[in-house]
């Protein structure tokens, strides 16, 4: 390597490095953001918003009150926004209004389940509950918005605030993408509250972090009749039972043991009397994989096994993958470039010991739809475990609770990621940031 090449590499590295905190960089200093987010006035404001949303949970595409609350708060801050985007979604804009654009995303929907936690701000809507922390996600993004708006004149580009509907199976992110919510966006950051990660810490990884997910439903039809005269019937109960056993063999016998996959049956409906064989049984469930190939292979084999195994017991079967109501979620794959950026920024705010490695899990997130159009996507987990207060119940439990002490961390981190990303973009205008060629690679 010649001298000029050395110089070029040094210059390139200088261009690509993000502005260190508090080092006299021209932009705002993210190290201050956590202190700001922890100030009682801002922290308590976020807690209040989270509790208001918690009391009135709304399901996917019905987040009208939540959306109204978001718009009112953005309006009070003087942040301009677009609405409606994807039915109830809101798209706020902070900064210059010009490129580059970096997006921060929060999901707004609740779950169709009854809250069992007895507390002052328990859900007031029977059969609906924020049991996945999305009320906290909205509060944190509003907190980040407030911090960013306080520094709007220093932003070297534009932060796009995405409040999206229907993460829980409804594919709200897909509709946001289709509505153009991330048009021209260069990078997007999302987070999820985690009951496994300690308060003040985050967990993340480069590459695949959450699986691709699909649902299926099958109607297995036979011929009903008297339970004591099975010879005159075609029994769909037995056929469905054999179908389920056969489906369990897809992962254990056909998948590479080192390629994580799941097939789970969650639904079995059939019959209503002890002495009647029904005409039909409905089964359903979900399947998960990281790579597109494994996901498509599972989908094909699920249909073949259901139809083929049902026919062994003389039944017919129709399989529906519910693509309209629950679109397949792609796997969530983190950009390696943004991972380096995140480790640096989060480590600077929380301490490097509090930036932990996340093992991939077979859960799914519709955040993955953004990676279809946004060049760089990054999703991480925000800790809220505090053992001195006892263990927290996991997401989707009727006993799920948020440790509200986590809210300032999420607000500060999201604001910091956006600000430092924009600063990095500007400093790299003469030498573009290293784009992760395999940003969408899969496990
Ligand atoms: Zn959830
Ligand atoms: Zn969730």
Automatic annotation (TrEMBL):
Where is it found, in Gene Ontology cellular component terms?
A: endoplasmic reticulum
Signal peptide as annotated in the record: 1-24
Write out the GO biological process terms. Answer: auxin metabolic process
Q: Which UniProt keywords apply?
A: Hydrolase, Manganese, Metal-binding, Signal
Q: Does the keyword Hydrolase apply?
A: yes
Query: Could you say which residues bind Mn(2+) here?
Result: 132, 134, 168, 192, 396
Q: Give one Pfam family, short name only.
A: Peptidase_M20
Q: What does this protein do?
A: Hydrolyzes certain amino acid conjugates of the plant growth regulator indole-3-acetic acid (IAA).
Q: What is this protein called?
A: IAA-amino acid hydrolase ILR1-like 1
Q: Which organism is it from?
A: Iris pallida
What does UniProt list as this organism's lineage?
Eukaryota, Viridiplantae, Streptophyta, Embryophyta, Tracheophyta
């Amino acid at each position: 390597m010649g001298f000029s090449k050395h110089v070029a590499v040094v210059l390139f590295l200088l261009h690509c490095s993000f502005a260190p905190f508090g080092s006299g960089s021209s932009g705002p200093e993210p190290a201050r953001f956590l202190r700001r987010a922890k100030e009682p006035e801002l922290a308590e404001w976020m807690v209040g918003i989270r509790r208001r949303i918690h009391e009135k949970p709304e399901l996917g595409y019905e987040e009208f009150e939540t959306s109204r609350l978001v718009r009112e708060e953005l309006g009070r801050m003087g942040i301009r926004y677009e609405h409606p985007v994807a039915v109830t979604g809101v798209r706020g804009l902070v900064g210059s209004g010009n490129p580059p654009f970096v997006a921060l995303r929060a999901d707004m929907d609740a779950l169709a389940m009854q809250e069992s936690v007895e507390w002052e701000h328990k859900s007031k809507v029977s059969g609906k509950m924020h049991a996945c922390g999305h009320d906290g996600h909205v509060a944190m993004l509003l907190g980040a918005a407030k911090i960013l708006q306080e520094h709007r004149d220093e932003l070297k580009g534009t932060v796009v605030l995405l409040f999206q509907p229907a993460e829980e199976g409804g594919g709200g992110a897909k509709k946001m993408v289709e509505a153009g919510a991330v048009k021209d966006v260069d990078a997007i950051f999302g987070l999820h509250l985690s009951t496994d990660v300690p308060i003040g810490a985050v967990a993340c990884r480069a590459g695949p972090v959450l699986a691709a997910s699909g649902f299926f439903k099958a109607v297995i039809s036979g011929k009903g009749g008297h339970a004591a005269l099975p010879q005159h019937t075609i029994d769909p109960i037995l056929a469905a039972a054999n179908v389920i056993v056969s489906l369990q063999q897809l992962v254990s016998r056909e998948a590479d043991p080192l390629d994580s996959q799941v097939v789970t049956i969650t639904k079995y409906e059939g019959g209503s009397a002890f002495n009647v064989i029904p005409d039909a049984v409905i089964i359903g469930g979900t399947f998960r994989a990281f790579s597109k190939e494994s996901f498509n292979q599972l989908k094909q084999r699920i249909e073949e096994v259901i139809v083929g195994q049902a026919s062994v017991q003389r039944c017919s079967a129709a399989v529906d993958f519910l693509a309209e109501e629950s679109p397949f979620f792609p796997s969530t794959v983190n950009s390696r470039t943004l991972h380096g950026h995140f480790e640096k920024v989060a480590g600077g705010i929380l301490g490097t010991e509090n930036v932990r490695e996340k093992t991939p899990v077979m859960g799914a997130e519709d955040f993955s739809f953004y990676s279809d159009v946004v060049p760089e996507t990054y999703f991480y987990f925000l800790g809220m475990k505090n053992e001195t207060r006892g263990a927290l119940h996991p997401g989707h439990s009727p006993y799920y609770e948020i440790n509200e002490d986590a809210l300032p961390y999420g607000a500060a981190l999201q604001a910091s990621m956006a600000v430092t990303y924009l600063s990095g973009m500007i400093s790299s205008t003469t030498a573009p940031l290293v784009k992760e060629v395999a940003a969408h690679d899969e496990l």
